[in-house]
Write a structure and sequence with these properties.
The protein is α/β, with parallel strands linked by helices. The protein has 16 helices and 13 strands. The chain has helices at residues 18-21, 34-38, 49-54, 61-80, 84-112, 123-148, 169-177, 199-203, 207-219, 237-240, 253-261, 269-278, 331-341, 364-377, 403-413, 439-460; strands at residues 26-28, 153-156, 186-190, 224-228, 250-252, 282-286, 295-298, 309-321, 345-351, 355-361, 382-394, 420-422, 429-435. A 6-stranded antiparallel beta sheet has the order 9-10-8-11-13-12. A 4-stranded mixed beta sheet has the order 4-6-7-5. Strands 1-3-2 form a 3-stranded parallel beta sheet, sandwiched between helices. Helix 5 packs antiparallel against helix 6 (123-148) and helix 13 packs across helix 14 (364-377).
Length: 461
Amino acid sequence: MSRLPELRETLFRVGAEPEQLYNRVFVVSAFGGITNKLLEHKKSGTPGVYTLFANDDTDGGWLDALTGVADAMVEINHEVLEHPGDLTMADEFVRERIEGARSCLFDLKRLCSYGHFRLGSQMMVIRELLSGLGEAHSAFVSMLMLQRAGVNARFVDLSGWRDETEYNLTERISAGLDNVDLATELPIVTGYAQCREGLMREFDRGYSEVTFSRIAAHTGAGEAIIHKEFHLSSADPNLVGVDAVRKLGHTNFNAADQLSNMGMEAIHPNAAKTLRKAGIPLRVTNAFDPEDPGTLIDDQPADSPAVEIVTGLNVVALELFEQDMAGVKGYDRRVLDILTRHQVRIVTKSTNANTITHYLDAPLKTIRRVENDLTDEFPNAEITIHRLALVAAIGRDLTGIKPIERGLQAMEEAGLRCLALQHLPGSVDVQYIVQQDDRDAVIKALHRALVEESKEIREAA
């Protein structure tokens, strides 16, 4: 979104004939960095307005943070828009939304000061309110830019701003789009949609793709397209090299789900499920390479067995050992109850007669709280925590290509150690558990052996 002006002629097709320009719906996320400022930084955890407001006692740091968001939005307005009239409207839009949010948060704090109301019960609503500011801003600015270029663009705000109607998600989408003439208008829709279900509660920051998929199903789209800054590739090009990676070109939803599980989302799993049920294929393209068709994701089988992508994720291995576990039912369920209570994401797990190991994607401080609860629940158990990495080789069809043997051989030749390995018969991935310090080296070794050399062999044949 931050490179929006570069996409006017390519992605948005400014100047094209109506049959090429319309009959499309664009669902936009916030401009780069804005959601981090509104909530918290997705990777570093640096607090944004939401976190500062939730932890505020007396210093009112959230007020300065909200002003900082307004300044960042205005700066973006002046980077994207050129016409003075458009700039005036965009800056006024920012002022109205930010000051409205500021008043709302002030009023809520004042209300909760009486003791009969609890701020904690409203925090998810506040998170949704703040998050919607980013998408509304980007959609409005995009609409102004396109209208100035002669496109009949229409701002469709699903964020529920000053809307007293209580919709579910389907009703919210219908209310926003049903009176839009897709043949003559180009709707620019907010990725956040306010609804009874609460998108943030269900999907946190994956909500825009859920909205996107539901809109695709609602409109009966022929294809759903996600535009990224890069192609969906066989590995991180910054790690294995631009010349070494391969564009996927074609994969299926099952493989995409495994990518998501590894933190490398092609699309949120719930969004993929909606498209799958609606029979709508997904295409992931590089927005800055408009001539390339990108990667198609559907339910079609692979033409031939192959590893399509190698990726890795740092995890925490939480190992619970208890000698008395053998033959006793219910241990796994009790562990899962504790992990669920602390909202810890499980990447994968393994078990044997007296050991359960969960590989978790969560901060270490959260894992420590889980460890304390497990100690209380299982006072005779030995609980061990390891910081490891999980590297996965993923492909629609791995039959007959020996990814386990070849992968282990590649790691041995590179002097790398595999601590554990998981592969379910008929599954689309092989998972190698390694030391965190070895993760990148393992990805490069596996990519070379399972992707690059395999392609060289096929081309030679």
